[in-house]
Each structure stands twice: as C-alpha cells, then as structure tokens.
Amino acid sequence: MSSIVLSVRNLNISLRAACEQVQVVDRLSFSLNSGEILGLVGESGCGKSITAAALMGLVPPMAGKSVAEQIQLGETDLAQLDEAGMRRIRGSGISMVFQEPLTALDPVFTIGSQLSTVIRRHRGENRRRARHSSIDMLDRVGMADASRIMKSYPHQLSGGMRQRVMIAMAMACHPTVLIADEPTSALDVTTQTQILEQLSELAQSFGTAILLITHDLGVVAQACDRALVMYCGRIVEEAPVGTLFSEPAHPYTAGLLAAVPRISNGEVQRVRAIPGRVPNPAELPAGCHFADRCSRTDDQCRKQSPELQTINKAGDMKDSGQESTHRAACHHPLPPSLATVVSE
Amino acid sequence: MPRDGFPLLSVRNLVVQYRVTGDRKQLLTAVNDISFDIHAGSTFGLVGESGSGKSSIASAIVQLVRPAAGEVLFHGENLAGMKVSGMRQARKSIQLVFQDPQASLSPRRSVLQTLLEPLDHFAIDAAGQRRARAYSALETVGLDPDLILRFPHELSGGQRQRVALARALVTEPELIIADEAVSSLDVSVQARIIELILDLQNRLGIAFLFISHDLAVIQQLANSVGVMYLGKMVETATASSLFRQAAHPYTRSLLEAVPVPDPAHSKPVVLEGELPSALTPPAGCVFHTRCPQVMEQCRIVEPADRQINEPVEKDATHNVRCHLWNS
Hints:
The complex is a heterodimer of chains A (about 350) and B (about 325). Chain A is α/β, with parallel strands linked by helices and about 350 residues long.
C-alpha cells in the first residue's frame, strides 16, 4: 500500500528581521505518503509558505536560515545537499506550483518555450521531442487546444488556463512530490473546482504525492486525504480530514472551522471569529502560542509549551498505522463530543 | 424603508461599455442592461465570477466610468447626468471599500492622515474637530486608537481593512460599496470583518452593496442577492429565497462549487469550460455554452427576465432569466 515518500524531521526556519533572527518554523516534522494529498492549513504568517520554500531549498541565505535534521526524499536526504545537488532534485524529485501563475510565468516567452525548456533541461530531450512532450502534457492537464496554447503568451490566457500550464510544467518530469502553494486562491470557485480535480487526477495517474498548502478549509475538505494545521510556526494538529472536521481536538482548529462561512438553504449560520489576533512571531508568548486566544487556557498552558501527542480515541482506528494518526499539541484537547459543539 | 418615496439607490437598465484597442477597435459590453434597487439600511449582494461585470457596476454607480446607457438614481436623482460638483456631494454619501487595502491605502499616509483626507475634502466639521471624528471612526471599527499614527505597512491585513472601513465611515455615508472587501483576508480575520459589518449596519443603518465571488460570504451579509454572468443579471431574489431555491442553472453551479468545509459532503459537479469573452458573447442565453440543462432555444433566443414567485411582500420577488422557467 502507501509508503512514505517524503519524511521531514525537525525543520527549523528563522528569518532575519531588523537586527535579530526570528524563528518562524519550529521543529516541524511530518511525512508524506505516495499518492496522497496532504493539506497544510493555516493563516497568513503561520509559516506554511516558507516551509514550502525550505523543502525546495529556496530560502534565500541572505533572508534566513533553514535547518532540518532530515528531509528524506526517497534515497536522498535533501538536508545534506548543496545548491548543485538541489538543482538536480528540483523539477524531477520535488516540484512546485505557486499561487499566482502570472508572476510565476515569464511574460516575454511563449508557453511552449517555457514548458519545453523545463523538459529539455530535466529530461534531456531535443527540441522536437520536447515540443511533443509539452503538447502531451498540456493535453493531460485538460487544455483542449494544446498547439495554440503553445504559441500563446501568459497574458493571453485566463487565470485558470495559466494555472493549468503551471501544473503541466511542474508535473512534466513526473516528480515524486509536488508542492502546491495556494494553487487555487487566485481563481474563481468554478475554476477552483476544475483545478483541484485536475490535481487529484494527476496525483493518481503519476503516483505523485501532493503537499497542498492552503488557508481554505473548504479546499482541504474537498481535495485532501490528511491535513496538518499550523499556528505560529508549529503543527498544532494532524489528522485524516474526516476526523479533523468532525472531531477537531485543538481549540484553534475548532475556532477556524467556526469562522468559515457555510452556505445553508435555511437559517443563516453565522460565522464566529476567534478572539484576539495572531501574535507577532518576534514576540511569541511563552507556553502555548494560542493561550491568549483560547477559552480553555489555564496556568499550565501559559508556562509549558504543549508537544504533539496522539489523541486517544479507542475504536476509531479503522485504517492501519501511520495514516489514521490523530495528533494535537494541546494540554486540554477538546473531547470529540465537545468539539462538534464548538465547531457547530 | 425607502426615504422620500424612492429606494436609496436604484440602478435602471445600466449599460457599461469599454473601448478595446487591439487588432481592431471593438466595444466590450461589461454590464448589459442591469437593474436593481438597494433600500436604506439593507445589503444587496452582487455575486459572479471575475469578468462578469460586478466591479464595473460599482464604478458606474459612483461615475468613475460613465455608463453608456441607463440610470443610477440616488434618492431618485440621476447620478449619470450629474455635473462634477453635484457628484462630489453624492460621493460623500456613497463610499467605497476595495479588496486589497494594501493597494487602496496610501503607503505614505498615516492612519490619521488617511482618515482626515475625506473630512478635509468635504469640509466636514471645523478643522479643529476633525481629529476627534477620526478617532471616533477608529473606535467604531474596533481599532486601538494607539494605531492612529501608524502607516499601512505597520498594520496587519485585518487592521488595514478596518482602516479602509473607517475611512469610508468618517463622512457618515448612507451607502458603502464593498468590492470583494473580505476576499483577501484569512478566515478568522474575515469572520471578524463580517461581524463588524453586521454590527455597523445595526448601529448606523448604513446600506451596503456587497460585491463578492463567494456565495457563502454573501449569505452572511445580504438581504437580497443578484447573480451576474457575463454582464447580465441572470437571477435576483431575496437572500432567503435564493439560498432556499436557486432557480438559474448558473446560480446552482455556483452554489455547488463553493467548497464545503465537510469532507463527507459529496464532491461538487464541475462546471465545464470558462467564462466566454465579453467581446464575443454567445447568442441566445449567455450561459448556454456551459449550461448543464441547455435546450435548443437557449442557443437562439435570449430568455426574458421572469418573475417566478408570488411576492409575499413588496420587493420579495424572485426573478430569473432562463428558458427553463418559461412555462
């Protein structure tokens, strides 16, 4: 069955701000199984995008530092690689799709030129073969008129089409892992559905594992198998999506769920905001970072930082091992019955 | 209730066109014969995909673009034909809040300067009292008065959007046009701005034209809703009627496409294709190229605006432009 393709252990990232180092990601550990879509959810500033940059080896040395005990991708430990080594991995081992395809694509080259460059560079194909492979990739991401698209410039395409091109480019070398950073946030809901479906389809046919970074819990519910919830640089909860949405254990997760507007065909279900605001990463409170905004806070929360621990849920371990682990970093996790009350 | 016998804002057969220069000059019709009313103290939600013409309506209401045809009646007075001086007075009562406060706030002005600008412009209060008014606007939107000397880059996204709201509120407007005002915010911040807007409306009785692509957000705020597709209003109804029984296939697809934060929810049916170009809109019904229930006549005849219910009270009508409702 599923095997681990990417395993990250104790990833720490600090960024240079003014004259100090601010730690923005703190001991992040997770693993990604082949063929699965893992959601990484959190609000802006929680460290999700810098995590993606770190996995790609793209944290600029001038801006910050990323140190990990291990980033195991297949046989290779990315944490030990230098820039030249990372360059060989990017594209073929681990690849990325960004939020805004208009800034990620070069405005002065045609789609065909950009796409075949990637293929020639990584697969060593000649011009003609790369052109065929490009058209084939565009077909696979559902672009009907591939040879016309090849001649187009990015500004001549719609947002959804540009994002399809980005996906084609990222998947062109059949990477083991694809990181998709807010791939649908700039798109309309109808296009979003199409793109998400395209992603899952590709993940299945290529056996690629996807790390889907998003702030939108609706996207997580729609597309992901499992999810990690991040708050202030730490993973506060990890669960299969079914469990995460029906029985959130961390009060932050429950708070996020209550803040999402939901369409109802009867009485309007009012959103409820989480009190307070995300603390400044340079001035994180001691103990649990969520303590100031949480209704279950006591002395322990303010003193001692909670570690991720498995939530004890006897009788709900239908899937075996790894995948069904439900963990939360909370001294007072919500019991399943209460969790639904809070998120209701 | 409508004051002086008119709705607060009444948009009548509005048409907005842009000249497009390319290989040859063309006219792009962004808004095509749109009509709706907004009553004092209520919220009209305008929903549709990007390119459907929502923002053009906002611009046309405040005459940032001149409508090609149609009327924009504010208290029964047509803004479309108004001179610059008259329009300036009307703008005091109609304020705008945009999607990205980073872009709509001047990076070189402090919060205080930003809030004083409209007061100076409209000469509201004596110069010495304007500061006090700025502080009270800040309090209204729930911002710490200590932030008043900060600059936009020193504020979080949510705080910036509150400043943008405060700037809209200082002139005591009767109508605020909010164009995707919560779309770029995180859910928890978005929830707080939604709560704030509801609270403002309760306390101050301000009417909102709330433009969004997100029906879930629209349901939180709107009393009535208009659904736009390629410059046409394809459905208008009270919010309760629309969310109970959406009539137009496009509205249903939109409802379907909103991601539901529940993994047990069935996967949405994908609406095929993309919005056609507004330069060459499809003949017949504008939605026929993507409609799951398309019929022969949809490709030829444009459906008329049809009322599909017996109004229980005045203005509680449910209108749709679709041949499915022709019988």
